[in-house]
Amino acid sequence: MLEKILLLLSLSLSVAEGLCKPGVGEAYKVRFSIKTALGDQAYPWNKNEMFLFRAALAFAMRDFTNGEEFGVSDIHPCNETQRVSFWFVVTRPKTMDLVDKGTVEMAIKKSRNRINGAFLLTDKTLEFDGIYPTLAAPVSPDTPPWLIVFGVVMGAVSVGIIALLVYPLVQRKLKKNMDADDEDSDEETGVKTAENGANDGIYNSTFSDDERFTQM
Amino acid sequence: MEKDGRPNWDSPMQFVLACVSYAVGLGNVWRFPYLCQLHGGGGFLIPYLIMLLLEGLPLFYMELAIGQKMRLGSIGAWTSISPYLGGLGLASVVTSVYLCLYYNVINAWSFWYLFHSFQSVLPWAVCPINSNRTGPTEECEVATPTQYFFYRETLNISSSIEENGGIHTGQALCLVLAWAITYLFIVRGVKSTGKVVYFTATFPYLVLFIYLIRGVTLHGAINGLKYMFTPKMAELANPRAWINAATQIFFSLGLGFGSLIAFASYNQHNNNFQNQAIVVSLINSGTSIFASIVTFAIYGFKATLNYENCLDRMRLLLLNTFDLAEDAISMDSVLEWTEKLNTTYPEQFAQIADKVREGECNLEKELDTAVEGTGLAFIVYSEAIKNMPLPQLWSVLYFFMLLLLGMGSMLGNVTAIITPLRDFKIMSRMSNELFSGLVCVFCLLLGLGFTTTSGNYWFTIFNDYAATFSLLFIVLIEVIAVSYIYGIKRFEKDIEDMLGHRPNWYWKIMWAVTSPLLLIGLFIFYIINYIQGGTPTYQAWNKELVSSPKDQSPSAIQQESVLLLQY
Predict the structure, then answer these.
(1) Best of A109, A143, A150, A159 to disrupt the B interface by mutation (most B CBs within 10 Å)?
(2) Nearest CA to CA, how far is A28 from chain B (Å)?
(3) Where can this protein be found (chain A) (predicted)?
(4) Cβ of B192: how many Cβ atoms within 10 Å?
(5) Minimal CA–CA distance to B212: which of B158, B293, B279?
(6) What's the Cα-to-Cα distance from B196 to each of B159, B287, B404, rounded to whole Å?
């Protein structure tokens, strides 16, 4: 009995290894750039990290297929290199049927952020060959910011122009009012002088204020 | 005691600053460094300084003397010298009108960039994403983000000069703002201009100084500086170097437009313009040299950055193809690894051989990309700025400086139009403000043509043809008129009248002999160049190829350029 189980296990393992062939069929290549992303705080790549990857991918498959019980054993990696890149295939749970590329792609696309987060990496440093990241939608504010700055500057300039144009007019008006007041008060005294003079004798125009007015 | 009530500068300092503000313009920043690089770095200073002594200084002095003596704008001044020379003044005014039309468009672009600097990510730093959200827009991917921002978002350029699209509203708004500010500065004549130039003449130097410190401390700046200052003396044997030096001095000082005559006409009769002429010319040349140090530091930074990015791309390509560990290849060892891998795995290497050849990294090549004009100011500099730490600050500072330089020159250009026209009795019945306003509105409306989608091509035509040829002719006639028609003797006496002493032999020889000969030489050279050049061509932006092949100008354009030249 034990031997039969052992035989079956070794058979399945060898079959699984046969399933994962780089560049052929439903295999995907994945590439990690841990040192580029984390520099000094880079963690070394080992079997545990590989286990995490398989678990993350199994989660992605479960999430996409809504409940199919994918497990760590359904993700088969092969051809691991020093670069930290390897190929993998996904099989359906409890069978050896390969999951097609399209489904795997969509599953990965859906949970890309979660997979990235598990490894503290980004779309650029955790690459799946052939699966392009969906970029974040651009944020477009209601009013473009440049228009706001433009409005401020334009407003200031307009105020400046109006001020420069209106200021001398205002000054002239004020001056006119002041002069008009002076003329009024002089007129009264002038008339009085003329009246006094006319009663006494010859009207001496020297003391009248008419000259002041004409010179203006 | 002013009989005619002509306004005056508040102090001689205002006049000097106005001249500095006018002469020190965008050309100092974007044309001189290019010429320096083209003609052997430090060695170019020799022809440049010689030309300054032979033509720049004497002609500058002459224009100031005429303006201060005649106390009229260019039309009135030349008519006083000889009634037949009124056309000379008119030619100056027309050239100034052409210049005003297109020059303020540059200020509009500076405003556009300045306003767009107030964002967390500079818009020319990243490409916009395409509609599928899979990557950057196609056009932007083939070009660089800075080029894309300039040609697509700022200009919305069409593919040829014949395709006229609509007006770019953002550009039009910025142009309106530029003219509004110009009006604000000149509305009160020299009273307002005189106050403004305190700022427009001095602030750019502050920014240049800040940029100098920032520039030389950038990584890789030393490469650019070394490149600039290693003189290649062999270039001095090339006559083009001397011709370019002569034309650069000539255009940089702004001779022939009538602005200097206009500014000087507001001087006191006894103002010592001799010293002022020397000071302003020296400041102008000094600023050119100063600006090229800054520019080359920035060039060096940008070239080194591009080179290192190129090396990094190569490194990644090798790592990914041969699946080596990440830290196996460092930036320094890329080249030796390329060799090693080529010999050890020839078949695998052959697959990527094309990519390696295309992406070959060469620092010299990066430094060799000499750029001038709007390409330098708006593309190369923006690219360097986006890579600096705290790019928004540097961007704001830089475009503000460009604005001040441009606005300072605009003051001179508009004054060159208004002053001679106001000397006519008909115009002086209108109030100052109204007349200036009309001139500004007129130039604004015509300038809107440059904000259309094909506007940049018209701009290039105006830039290349409107002012170059005609100015040489104008100044040549000017110097011949003063030396031979008016007479050196009379001119000497006038100067003695104003300054208290006669100009010494150096000035007289320059006016009578050297400068006219030099100008005739330049003039002949330009004519030969124009004839030999065949059908004029222009560089158009091809949306698909994202390159600028030279297209034939259609015949209407050729006629237009001849028309501009004829003035």
Answers:
(1) A150
(2) 15
(3) Cell membrane
(4) 17
(5) B293
(6) 40, 20, 10
Joined together, the tokens standing for residue B298 give 């920035």
d(CA B148, CA A216): 67
Chain CA centroid to CA A91, Å: 39
B431 CB-near residues (< 8 Å, 6+ apart):
none
CA distances from A212 to A187, A215, B192, B446 (A): 10, 5, 35, 52
Distance of CA B165 to the CA centre of its chain: 27
Our CA angle for B234, B237, B239, nearest 5°, is 135
Four-point Cα dihedral A165, A168, A170, A175, nearest 10: -170
Whole-angstrom CA distances from B128 to A51, A149, B142, B144, B153 are 38, 22, 13, 11, 11
Range scoring the smallest mean pLDDT among A180-184, B394-398, B544-548: B544-548
pLDDT tens-place string over residues B432-477: 888 899 999 999 999 998 888 888 888 877 777 777 788 888 899 9
- Which residue in B116, B177, B327 is closest to A154 by CB distance? B177
Q: Is A157 on the interface with B (CB under 8 A)?
A: yes
Strands of chain A (E only): list them. 28-32, 75-78, 85-90, 126-128
Distance from CA of B178 to the nearest CA of A (A): 9
Q: Is A191 near chain B, with CB under 8 Å?
A: no
- Yes or no: say if B387 and B305 are a contact pair by the CB < 8 Å rule: yes
Distance CA A27, CA A137 (A): 30
Q: Which residues share a beta bridge with A32?
A: A126
A63-116 residue pLDDT tens: 888 878 888 888 888 888 888 888 888 888 888 888 888 888 888 888 888 998
* Closest residue on chain A to B186 (Cα): A161
User: In this structure, what token pair is assigned to residue B40?
Assistant: 């052997």
Q: From the CB of residue A125, how many other CB atoms can be counted at a distance below 10 Å?
A: 17
Contacts with A136 from chain B: Cβ below 8 Å? 133
Task: Provide, as residue numbers in chain B, all residues whose Cβ is less than 8 Å from the Cβ of A35.
Answer: 326-327
Residue type, A40: D
Nearest of B486, B464, B476 to residue B538 by alpha carbon:
B464
Q: Are A89 and A76 in contact (CB under 8 A)?
A: yes
Give this prediction's pTM. Answer: 0.82
Residue A130: partners with Cβ closer than 8 Å, 6 or more residues away: A28, A29, A105
Alpha-carbon distances, residue B309 vs A206, B228, B360, B363 (angstroms): 95, 23, 11, 11
Residue B423 identity = D
Quote the tokens at residue B410.
Answer: 């605009």
* Closest-CA residue to B565 (of B418, B466, B434, B458): B466
Contact B96, B258 (CB under 8 A): yes
Give A82→chain B minimum CA distance, Å. 5
The answer to whether A130 and A30 are in contact (CB under 8 A) is no
In single-letter form, the type of residue at position B469 comes to F
Q: Which of B193, B326, B433 to mutate to test the interface with A (most CBs of A within 10 A)?
A: B326
Alpha-helix residue ranges (DSSP H) falling in B158-232 = 169-186, 190-216, 221-229
Task: Take residue B418 and report the two structure tokens written for it.
Answer: 């208004």
Look at residues B459, B443, B451, B374 and name the one whose alpha carbon lies nearest to residue B165: B451
Per-residue pLDDT reduced to its tens digit, B288-341: 999 989 988 988 888 888 888 888 888 888 888 888 877 777 777 888 888 887
Count of Cβ atoms closer than 10 Å to residue B125 Cβ: 17
Buried b (16+ CB within 10 A) or exposed e, B362-371: ebeebbeeeb
Q: How far is CA B79 from the centre of its chain?
A: 32
Identify residue B193 by its one-letter amino acid code: T
* Chain A residue at shortest CA distance from B191: A164
Residue type, B447: G
**Token pair recorded at residue B428:** 């002086």
